Amino acid sequence: MNNLKSKRSARLIDMTRYLMENPHTLVPLTFFAERYSSAKSSISEDLTIVRQTFRDRGIGLLETIPGAAGGSKFIPYILKEEAEQFVNEIKQALNDQSRLLPGGYIYMADLLSRPYILRQIGRIIATQYLNHDIDAVMTVATKGIPIAQSIANLLNVPFVIARHDSRITDGSTISVNYVSGSNRRIEKMVLSKRSLPEGSNVLIVDDFLRGGGSAAGLSDLVKEFNCNVVGISFFAEGVYNGERKISADQYTSIFKINTENDKISVSEGNYDNKVYGYLDNKEN
Amino acid sequence: MNNLKSKRSARLIDMTRYLMENPHTLVPLTFFAERYSSAKSSISEDLTIVRQTFRDRGIGLLETIPGAAGGSKFIPYILKEEAEQFVNEIKQALNDQSRLLPGGYIYMADLLSRPYILRQIGRIIATQYLNHDIDAVMTVATKGIPIAQSIANLLNVPFVIARHDSRITDGSTISVNYVSGSNRRIEKMVLSKRSLPEGSNVLIVDDFLRGGGSAAGLSDLVKEFNCNVVGISFFAEGVYNGERKISADQYTSIFKINTENDKISVSEGNYDNKVYGYLDNKEN
């Protein structure tokens, strides 16, 4: 009995690790049964415990797909309460007036380089797309990369990086021209031809929305690859006087940052935590 | 009894998740005791099971620090066998001749954008520095960023990104000039002054080593910040005819890629898996 008990303990620990490292992946019951030389019925009980703990702790949904081709799939999310707590914490950090830079820009590189912060941003953005199939996360170099990577980790999909200048190591590229929203200049954006398979569903992310030129350019690039834009999400958006290149219903942002009159003032963006609507279908 | 048992199960699952998300962090026994409203003796038993499973599965070391100020610290590593299996897998992927680009360059952006591959690269590089204190991971934009972020996740430290051109959003910067190893041009590298506190121990990483100019530039930049270079690690190194700006004992690489005569040939780099030497002190 003691031996059995310790076996279950070890299974639960390793399963948790395995599921966390392989989110959005259907893991067949037989995979775990073989991995632990255990009966499927025991594995099934294990997964029920994992599912319940993940739910109780707000870690995510362990979706169970029944049948011969079935198994378990871990779908990470963040619940409203934890998201709000995090957003408040970062709002305070952003409100630090020493972050103000000439021209109304704001220093936030220190925040967007900390693993904990990037993980929570990733969870908040991923939660907004729980009902969507996403095949790739896309951004433009360089400040959006850490955000793209964090979301890609949680969705377990590749991330692709467009650039303003092509590099030798990109190989053949496809490029688009777009009008920068902020300074009305024509800019170019390139993406390696091999980096995005046709028909992919693409989530576009970036650190900051000003005029929306980059986001519109990225959208055009996605279409050039015969792919679909699932959504556009930003860490933060600024105040913009004029018409943006993307409309308010096309994107989400976690923060709104106003730096007018040389004062930083941060409020919540238009992101919405839709996890309950999603879970109504899945967990009950 | 059944209730007690299920409580332990839930604790083990949540603990595993918590430790994985907070590596290299001393978690006091009292933190878990309060989190689960459980006796310290139960938590202690839980941690023994977690420690043993992490070791059995090659996930990492759960270091136990005894005493009133003590607790547990999860130190992720990868064992030789898993590392070698991964290295072989990627070696085959890199050996695909269609990756060859004009000028002897090689396309590898698809590999360095997949969460699983980046995690394993991170584990291999982090394992080489198990005996070192690292406060920050540093790279130069843009292709080293995903590798830096992956290692930073495992070490739970920030990563800092130097650039060839400074951006408004960097604020004040410190810059160094360096001689590019490959084309002997004088280049510039800048880093935001706020991004690296004095006295930090810095691990430098990048995707590819050619002449070593960038790595030498990054080292100079670290010194300009009155910080220390702990080590320099690359995903891959090329064949270089001439003297590199950094010597062979200053860096590690996972792969050596030869593209002479328009043919890709990949072998293992000089990385060394030192986990056993480290564990001799800690696990026995």
Give a structural overview.
The structure is a homodimer of 284-residue chains. In chain A, strand 11 (251-258) and strand 12 form a beta hairpin. In chain A, helix 5 crosses helix 6 (145-155). The first copy, chain A, is globular and about 65 Å long. The first copy, chain A, starts with a helix and ends with a helix. Chain A folds into 2 domains: 2-76, Arc Repressor Mutant, subunit A, CATH 1.10.10.10; 80-282, 3-Layer(aba) Sandwich (Rossmann fold). Chain A has 8 helices and 12 strands. The first copy, chain A, has 284 residues and is α/β, with parallel strands linked by helices. The mean pLDDT of chain A is 93. In chain A, the strands form 4 sheets. A 6-stranded mixed beta sheet of chain A has the order 6-5-9-10-11-12, sandwiched between helices. In chain A, strands 1-2 form a two-stranded antiparallel sheet. Helix content of chain A is 36%, strand content 25%. The interface between A and B is large, with 58 and 58 residues.
Question: Could you outline the blueprint of secondary structure elements for this entry?
Answer:
The structure is a homodimer of 284-residue chains.
Chain A: H1 2-21, H2 29-35, H3 40-56, E1 60-65, E2 71-76, H4 80-94, E3 100-101, E4 105-106, H5 115-127, E5 136-140, H6 145-155, E6 159-162, E7 173-179, E8 186-192, E9 201-209, H7 213-224, E10 228-238, E11 251-258, E12 265-268, H8 275-282
Parallel strand pairs in A: 5-6, 5-9, 9-10, 10-11
Antiparallel strand pairs in A: 1-2, 3-4, 7-8, 11-12
Helix pairs in contact in A: 1-3, 2-3, 5-6
Subunit structure (chains A, B): Homodimer.
InterPro entries (chains A, B): PRTase-like, PRTase_dom, Pur/Pyrimidine_PRTase, PuR_N, PurR_Bsub, WH-like_DNA-bd_sf, WH_DNA-bd_sf
GO molecular function, one term (chains A, B): DNA binding
